[in-house]
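Re: that chain you flagged

S.,

Sorry for the slow reply, it's been a week of failed gels. I finally had a moment to sit down with the sequence you sent. For the record, here it is as I used it:
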Amino acid sequence: MNKINVLKPKYRTNEVLDEIKICLDKGWTGMGFKTIEFEEAWKEYTKLPYAHFLQSNTVGLHLALNVFKTQEGWNDGDEIITTPLTFVSTNHSILYENLQPVFADVDETLCLNPESVEKLITDRTKAVMYVGMGGNAGKLNEIKYLCEQYNLKLILDAAHMSGTYTKDVMPGGEAYSCCHCGWEADASVFSFQAVKNLPTADGGMICFKEEKYDKLARQLSWLGIDKDTYSRSDDEGSYKWRYDVPNVGFKYHGNSIMASIGLVQLKYLDEDNDYRNKITEWYNELLENESWCKLISKTWHTHKSSKHLYQILVDEKKRDEIINHLYKNEIYPGVHYVDNTLYPMYSLYNGTCPRAHKYSKQLITLPIHLDITKDNCIKIVETIKEIL
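Prediction finished late last night. Pasting the C-alpha cells below so you have them in one place:
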C-alpha cells in the first residue's frame, strides 16, 4: 500500500511553468505584474471589493490588526476575542500588536460559540477573530450580528475557506446563497500555503471591506512606502526612483512567482473543492452509523464548504492509539489543532474553554486531498476498526 498523507497539493505543472515563464521572460518576479493579475482574479472570483496579495495568511492577520489598531485608536492591552482551537498563527498575530487574546469556547462545528463570545465582551473588547475551521463557516452569521451590535471589528481567519460559500437571511426572511465567504467581515484573510485548497508555495490574500484600510495595508506591506516599484515602472522596467515613506511598515507583500501559481490554481478551485466534497461524502457513508466516532456538524450558514479538512471526534483514550496504528499502516492522519491555551504564552487561559480542550484531545483529521479515492477511504476506515 502506498503512503497516504493527510494533506497533499496538486499542481497543474505545465500551466504553472508557462505562467512563471512569462515572469522570467519579462524580468519581473517581485511585487506587481502577476500579483496585480491575481488580486483582480480573486476579486472577480469572490466578489469581494478589495484584495491584496501577501506572503502568507499569518502576515495578513497581523496586518489587519495593525491597520485597525492604528486607524481606530486601539491601545496596547485592548482585547481580541479569539478561539483556542486553531493554528498558533491566529493568536500570535494578536500578540504581535501587544493586544490581549481572550479565548472563547467553540461549539459543535469547532468554530467560535456566539454565546461564549458575548459573555466575554467588555469595554476593552475591540474585535473578534473568527476561524472557519476546515472550511466550515459555523455560526459566522451570528458572530457578524454580535459584532455589529457591540461595534466590534470582525476579522475572519479564512485560511481554510478558499471556495467556501455562505448564506444569510435577508430582511423579510428570504435566504440568499452562493456568496463567497468574506463579505461578513471587516477583514478576511485567506491562505495559499502549500497544502491549502488553492496551493502556491506560500501566500495569502487580505480583503478589507473598506477602501481606506486596503490603501493603508498596501503601503504597510511595502515598508510604509507610498508607491511600489511596479507602479513607478514602465513596460521596459525603467522606473522613477522618487517616493515617500509616510509610515513604518513591513515587508509583507507577495511576489509574481507565487501569484503565477495562484492564477493557475484558482481556475481549478471549484472543481477541486467539488472532489473534496465527494471524498467527504464517501467518509460520511462509511462513518455516519459508527458509534466509535462523531462527525463534525455543518451549519445552515455554510452553503458549500471548501472541505479543507475531514475531522472526526473519537474517544480521547483511543485517539493516539488509532493514530499510531494508522502510522504503522503507512496512513498519516493529522490533528487540527492542539488547544492553544496549553502553550506557555496562552496558559493564563488554560481551563477556560472546556469544549475546545476536550475536542483537541479527541480530534483526528483523516486524509483528504485530490489523490484520495473511495478505496482509500474504505481502507482507512477498515484500518481504524482493526483496533477498536
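What I noticed first: The longest strand covers residues 125-131.

Talk soon,
D.
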